[in-house]
Amino acid sequence: MPLLAVRPQCRQSTGSPAPWGCCAEGEEHGSGAGDGVQADAAGAERMSPIVAGVLQAVQLTMADPSSVPVPSAAIGVGTWAWGNRFLWGYDPARDAELEATFRRALDLGLTFFDSADSYGTGRWTGRSELLLGRFCSALGPDQGQRVQVATKLAPFPWRLGRRGYRRAFEASRRRLNGHLQRVQLHWSTARYAPWQEGPLLDGLADLVLAGEVAELGVSNMGPRRLRQVVHHLAGRGVRLSSLQVQLSLLSPGPIAPGGVAAVCRELGVELIAYSPLALGLLARSGGESRPMPQGPRAALFRRLEPQLTPLLQRLAVIAAAHRAPLAAVALNWCRAHGAMPIVGLRSVAQAETAAEALRWQLSPEDRRDLDAIALALPRRMPANPFQSA
Ligand SMILES: NC(=O)c1ccc[n+]([C@@H]2O[C@H](COP(=O)([O-])OP(=O)(O)OC[C@H]3O[C@@H](n4cnc5c(N)ncnc54)[C@H](OP(=O)(O)O)[C@@H]3O)[C@@H](O)[C@H]2O)c1
Fold first, then answer.
1. Which fold has domain 76-283+293-376?
2. DSSP single-letter state for residue 47
3. Which of 75, 80, 272 to mutate for ligand 1's pocket (most ligand atoms within 8 Å of CB)?
4. Which of 47, 217, 225, 293 could form a disulfide with 242 if both were Cys (CB 3.0 to 4.6 A apart)?
C-alpha cells in the first residue's frame, strides 16, 4: 500500500518524526517523496542488488507524479446552497424541491452527499445538515443504506485542542440524524495557525479509532501539507480517505505539474472536486443570452465569462458528440482526472443532467485538449484563501 511507503516529511535531529506544524508554510524541510527516494537509493546500494532493485522500482513507481489518472467512477452531490441565502438565495419554501432532488439523485446513482456544519447563513446555519438528515431518515432501509454522507467541520479559532471538535461533531451528527460516514477538516489552518489543525485532526482520528465515524477526510490542503497529514495519520493507524479541493476547468491548479492531484494518486487518497461547475458558470452554454444569476455570482460570471469562448466551443463539440449537456462534460473532465466531482444540485433537472455524465467518460485526447485550454486561461476562479501549500 502506498501509505506504508510514505516517508516522514520532516525529521528532527533525533531522527524521530517531527510534531505537527514543524514545517512552516513556504519552508522546505527536506524529504518530500522525491527526497525519500534518493535517501533510500543510497541505502539500497548496501543491499543485495535484487532487493535494492525491487525496492527502488517500487518506490520510483509510487513517487512518479506523472502516472496516468484512473477516471473516477462516481459523481457526488454538494449541499452548500441548502440554507445559504447570501450566495445562493435559499428559500425554505423550496425544501420539498430539494428533497425531490435528493431522491432523484439517489435513484440515478449519485449516492455521496457533502455538507458542512458552517453551511447555512444567519438563522439557517446548520440547515444543510438538518435537511440532509431529515431526507435520509425519510428513506426506506434499502435506499438509506446506499447513501454516504460526509460533513466538514470548520476549524474556527475557538475550536482548539484534541477535543476541540467534540461538541461540533456531536451537533453535526445530531442534525444529520446519525447519517454520517465521513468527517472532514473543512480547511487547513497551516497558513495562519499551523499549531491548530494537528490536534484537531488527532481528535478526528480518535473518533475514527473509537468507531464513532467510519472515515476521515480533509479539505483545502496542498501537496506538502497533505503528505504530512497522511504520514502522521498512518502512524496512528488511521487512513486518510479523501482530500477535497476546488477543481474545475476554471480552477485547474490541482492537475497542473506539481499539483495535488498527482500526490493524491501517489498516496492513495481519493480526490474530491468541489465547485466543479465553477458555481454554475460552466453549465451556461456560450452564445445563449441566459439571464445572470442573482447576487454576488453575477459579478464573478461577468468577470470570467468574456474569456470563455474557446473553452465553451470545445465543450460544445464534445457535448454534441456524446449527446450530453455542457455540465456533463465539465463534470467528466474532473472524473477523467481521477476526481469525484461533488456538484451543487437544487433541482430534479440538475440531478438528471449530472447523472447523464455517468453513462460515458471523456477520451484521453479530449481530456488533454481541455487541459491545455483550461491551463492557458488568463483568469481563474478565486482561490480559497485557506488553501495550504
Ligand atoms: N470544501 C470547501 O471549502 C468547499 C467549497 C465550496 C463548495 N464545496 C462543496 O462543493 C459543492 C459543489 O460546489 P458549488 O455548489 O460551489 O458549485 P458547483 O457545483 O460548481 O455549481 C453549482 C451550481 O451550478 C448550477 N448547476 C448545477 N447543475 C446544473 C445543470 N445541470 N445545469 C445548469 N446549471 C447547473 C446550479 O446553480 P443554479 O441553481 O443557480 O442554476 C448549482 O447551484 C458544494 O455544494 C459544497 O458541498 C466545498
1. TIM Barrel (3.20.20)
2. S
3. 80
4. 217
